[in-house]
Input
Amino acid sequence: MTYLIGCLLGAALWFVLRVILLGIYTVDQNERAVKTVFGRAERLPGTTLDHPIAALLRDEEKPRYTYPQVRVIPPGGPYFKLPWERIYKVSIATVTQSMALDPEDKSANGNGTRLEAVTKDQLNTGLVGQIRYHVSEANLYGYLFGIKQPMVHVMGYFVSILRQRIANFEAKKEADLPAALASAEMTGVSINDLRKNLRDLNEYMDQECRSATARYGVVLDASLITGIDPPPEVESALAAINTAHNQVSSDISLAQAAADQKIVQSKRAVEIETLKAQAEVEPIKLLAAELSELHRAGPAVLAAYLRNVKLRLFEKVRDVYQVVPQ
Output
């Protein structure tokens, strides 16, 4: 009898510890949780295809990345779970890390500091930068159960898009040739093109990686490529090319400025001469208008005017020569 009572007390104590005490849990403020019952997550109606994140997937990708919607446990507690239930907690805080970090091999890519990529002119460049990401509440099933190592897939997806873009990148054509030559670095060299267009490259990566939310349940907030370095064997040659080009660009800028100054001076000289000609012509026009008015008044009036003009001229002369008809 005593043995039976001891077994019952032991079973009761185990039940209290295993079911009641170990069944209580909480969810932190920056966490979300998903509960599974006998290994199956608690689901809600619909799939990720019903969510706006699926609009970023191509049609052939949608069947492959169709995940059910699960019930997300918000921060708070205490919550209670039964022994056959399991809680999966996920941090949704934003994480910043080097884009060269390999989740499977921390020593790869220079211990996660420098990512290598080949440009269109076959130069092996080193890329330095960061990415920011966080887990998406809209696709927790894809992050927890759809993929075994989601960050490995996310980083591989990001690096493959980046390397493909680097390998095919071409700078936008400049419409104005002198302005293009006067740029800080020479166009046509892939590394220079990439350096000058880092903002466009970052925006392209942000746009292309937006589908990672529907694919892997991870939101890539931003990518920031901060440096593109040439291989050491061509760095000095590239610097010499840029120096020579900068000198040519400076000479072209000076020549263009001098030409613009001469054009402005020529325009100003034309304006001054035009004004002088107008000033000389204006009295003649007024005199012609006055003579026309006198002629319309009658021949005698015009003759009297001419006589008065001659008298004023005679007052200003010392000698007068008169031709006597033969």
Notes: The mean pLDDT is 79. Residues 232-297 form the longest helix (66 residues).
